[in-house]
C-alpha cells in the first residue's frame, strides 16, 4: 500500500517536475532574456513547494497505515484511536 499509493506517485511527480525544470533551464540558456535566472528560480521554487506539499499532506496517512500493518498499535493506543476515528482506518 505504501509503495503503490505513496512512493510510486511521489517518484513519478519528482521525475516529471524534474524534467520540467530541466527544460526551463535549457531554454534559459538559449534565451538571452535578462531576467531568465529569476524565472528559473521561481519555477524551481514552485516545483519544490508542490512536491513538499504532497509529502506533508499524504505522508501522515501512509505512515499511520504502515504502523498499523506492523502492529505498533499497542505502543500508541490513544493516538491510534484518535487517528482511526478521523481517518476511518481500522485493522
DSSP E strands, number: 0
The amount of beta strand, in percent, is: under 5%
Oligomer: single chain
Tally of alpha and pi helices:
3
> How many structurally independent domains?
1
Please mark out the parts with pLDDT under 50 across 5 or more consecutive residues, or reply none.
Answer: none
- The CA-CA distance between the termini, in Å, is 14 Å
- Would you tell me the structural class of the helices and strands? mainly alpha
Instruction: Categorize the overall geometry.
Output: elongated
Largest sheet: number of strands, sense, barrel closure: none
Helix content: over 70%
Radius of gyration: 19 Å
Provide the residue-averaged pLDDT.
78
Protein name: G-protein coupled receptors family 1 profile domain-containing protein
Main location: membrane
GO molecular function, one term: G protein-coupled receptor activity
Subcellular location: Membrane
Task: Please outline the helices and strands.
Blueprint: H1 2-30, H2 36-69, H3 77-87
Helix pairs in contact: 1-2
Keywords: Membrane, Transmembrane, Transmembrane helix
Domain G-protein coupled receptors family 1 profile: 1-91
Transmembrane segments: 6-24, 45-64
Description:
The model has no long low-confidence stretch (mean pLDDT 78). The protein has one domain. It is an all-alpha fold. The protein has helices at residues 2-30, 36-69, 77-87. Helix 1 packs antiparallel against helix 2 (36-69). The two termini are 14 Å apart.
Amino acid at each position: 500500500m505504501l509503495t503503490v499509493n505513496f512512493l510510486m506517485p511521489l517518484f513519478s511527480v519528482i521525475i516529471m517536475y524534474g524534467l520540467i525544470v530541466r527544460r526551463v533551464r535549457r531554454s534559459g540558456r538559449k534565451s538571452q532574456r535578462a531576467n531568465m535566472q529569476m524565472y528559473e528560480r521561481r519555477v524551481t521554487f514552485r516545483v519544490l513547494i508542490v512536491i513538499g506539499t504532497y509529502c506533508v499532506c499524504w505522508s501522515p496517512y501512509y505512515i499511520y497505515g504502515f504502523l498499523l500493518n506492523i502492529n505498533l498499535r499497542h505502543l500508541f493506543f490513544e493516538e491510534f484511536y484518535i487517528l482511526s476515528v478521523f481517518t476511518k482506518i481500522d485493522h
